[in-house]
Specification:
TIM Barrel; 9-stranded mixed sheet; 11 strands
Length: 316
């Protein structure tokens, strides 16, 4: 049923003005937020560490992984501003670009890498059709693999957090980041039920990969759809993840950040909210967190846990 609803949504989406799309989603989220208050933003069932887990590097209390999906040309234009914001505070992150939705600048990708950031691939076209059939996925996977190779990238995230973990195994990646611990507001809302990375076995001759679920609510959901005016939900969830030794993985979007201090538009929020979150991490958890790029978190998990891990039940 969810698959059918998703297909219908993407079919009519181009016909609806953006303001109508957002208004409808806000109505749905208000209802869902009450209905799922027992499992969002925190699901107690997701705090158990995987089998064989011995903790994060250097005995750190928890891991912090910052990622960004650049969904539009507008987001592409804002990427350097977000990069500089993080550098000022001593953080590094990954930026996932959509290869065939807007021109992706080789100069920008190079500048990110030179400054210690990571570049990943975010789908292919961001048109909602990637998982329409296995045939379509296979055709697009060949192109995605070429972009992964050309960009020397090892990570992938699907648009709109759609996922089929078996099909994703066709990509030449070390990690995927298309899932979440709990998020009933996503179109495909089957959470993986863990705040830790986990291993996805390969099929045929493929080696498998590490799955990195996001564990902090996305900025678009929090500030655009829910219209929150502070970072309290981020803070509370981070505190809970730290207490349970998990991975605080955040997915933000430069597309929706307002950097110039002007009145935010319909799909914008003040970038100061994100800056405030990073300051909160630094001030409240100094010396207690392992700040890692997603590829570093995936490599650590592969090496330390040796693939003998908890595998959550996920619908394909």
């Amino acid at each position: 049923m969810n698959s059918l609803i998703n297909r219908l949504y993407y079919l009519v989406k181009p016909l609806l003005p953006r303001c109508v799309q957002i208004s409808l989603r806000r109505i749905v989220i208000r209802k869902k937020r009450v209905k799922y208050s027992d499992v969002w933003p925190i699901s107690e069932a997701s705090k158990s560490p995987p089998a064989g887990w011995n903790g994060w590097p250097e005995g750190k209390k928890f891991a912090l992984v910052l990622t960004h999906d650049v969904e539009t040309a507008k987001g592409h234009e804002k990427t350097e501003k977000l990069m500089r914001l993080e550098m000022e505070l001593g953080f590094r992150s990954s930026f996932n670009f959509v290869p065939e939705r807007y021109p992706v600048s080789p100069v920008l990708r190079s500048r990110l890498i030179q400054n210690g950031f990571e570049v990943g691939v975010h789908g292919l076209k961001h048109d909602g059709k990637l998982y329409r059939s296995e045939k379509i996925f296979r055709e697009r996977a060949r192109k995605i693999n070429q972009y992964l190779k050309d960009w020397q990238a090892v990570g992938f995230r699907s648009p709109s957090m759609q996922h089929n973990l078996e099909w994703i195994g066709q990509l030449n990646i070390e990690y995927d980041a298309s899932t979440f611990d709990t998020d009933p507001f996503e179109p495909q809302s089957d959470g993986v039920g863990t705040i830790f990375p986990f291993w996805v076995d390969g099929t045929d001759d493929r080696k498998g990969y590490v799955e990195l679920p996001y564990t902090l609510v996305q900025d678009f959901t929090l500030f655009i759809l829910m219209q929150q005016k502070d970072i309290e939900i981020w803070q509370d969830k981070l505190d809970w993840i730290a207490e349970n030794g998990g991975m605080a993985l955040l997915n933000g979007h430069p597309d929706y950040m307002n950097f110039d201090g002007s009145k935010p538009g319909l799909e914008e929020y003040p970038a100061e909210y994100y800056r405030e979150f990073l300051r909160y991490v630094k001030e409240c958890y100094a010396g207690q967190y392992w700040s890692a790029l997603p590829r570093e978190a995936a490599q650590f998990f592969m090496n330390e846990v040796q693939k003998v891990i908890y595998k959550p039940t996920v619908k394909s």
